[in-house]
Design goal:
Length: 274
């Protein structure tokens, strides 16, 4: 699933093609991808709106429109938001097509159909699923070490699940959580209340560093993920632990293993993650 760096990369790649563009027409071929409002209202209210800004919150793409509305897109497992020329052939997994003033099209492509689109009123994030319940943005300038440490108060769950909990902190998923814990030398199954203050501080800095690196490399492309122009990222080449089972740990030479943590496949080094 695209995580914060992938979603950020998609947004950055789309921005030059979308800013100041009017949406001329909207074609929704798979209705259940539109989660809010009703499809007819969604199409009606989106048509002839102008795109004024793009932003990200957690793993959500926010396409801000004139008229106090925001189009929200959650890519989930295999969703792609792509810029295409209108004469480019439609993929069989293209389910929503928005024609732009420029003649190009913004297409939502989704093999597994788990992605979701919402057209919300500004100031009403509760209209878009979990958007209103997201925890802090890890890369936000005003999100400090102290703020991160505060999140641990009263938390007893395993650290890997906590990092992936969108209400705890927004934007992390399986890949980046594994990489962060590896680099911090923390066992993914360690309980949150057994993470020392010193380790919380280290986690805060490693988390920000890894997410920034993920963005710099254009995200991690294993199978589906591409940016808005269909280009793959290269952070998969920088991974030290995720999907590296059987390999020797770079730090201690022990074999990296795969195990289930909170129902998710997790990669870690039993030699140096304690
Ligand atoms: Zn190791």
């Amino acid at each position: 699933m695209p995580e914060l760096p992938e979603v950020e990369t998609v947004i950055n790649s789309l921005r030059p093609f979308l800013i100041n563009q009017e949406i001329i027409s909207v074609n929704v071929k798979v209705k259940n991808l539109v989660a809010y409002p009703e499809v007819d209202v969604f199409i009606d209210e989106l048509t002839n709106k102008k795109i004024i800004a793009l932003a990200r919150r957690g793993k959500y793409i926010l396409i801000k429109l004139n008229d106090n509305k925001t189009l929200i897109v959650h890519l989930r497992m295999t969703g792609k938001l792509l810029i295409k020329e209108s004469d480019q052939e439609l993929d069989k997994h293209t389910h929503i097509i928005m024609k732009l003033e420029s003649g190009k099209e913004l297409r939502f492509n989704n093999i597994r159909k788990f992605g979701r689109l919402y057209l919300i009123d500004n100031g009403h994030p509760e209209q878009a699923g979990g958007l209103a319940k997201l925890g802090p943005e890890p890369l936000s300038e005003d999100f400090t070490e102290k703020d991160f440490k505060k999140l641990f108060k009263g938390r007893h769950g395993v650290i890997k699940s906590l990092l992936m909990n969108q209400k705890f902190i927004a934007g992390l998923g399986n890949i980046y959580a594994d990489e962060i814990l590896y680099r911090a030398g923390i066992d993914p199954e360690r309980k949150a209340d057994k993470i020392s203050e010193q380790e919380q501080v280290e986690l805060y800095h490693i988390m920000r560093e890894i997410l920034r690196a993920g963005i710099k490399f254009g995200g991690t492309s294993f199978s589906d993920y591409v940016n808005g122009l269909g280009e793959k990222g290269s952070f998969q080449e920088e991974l030290l632990v995720y999907q590296q089972s059987g390999q020797a740990c770079e730090r201690c030479s022990e074999e990296i293993i795969k195990k289930k943590v909170g129902g998710r496949s997790s990669y870690y080094c039993p030699g140096c993650q304690k």
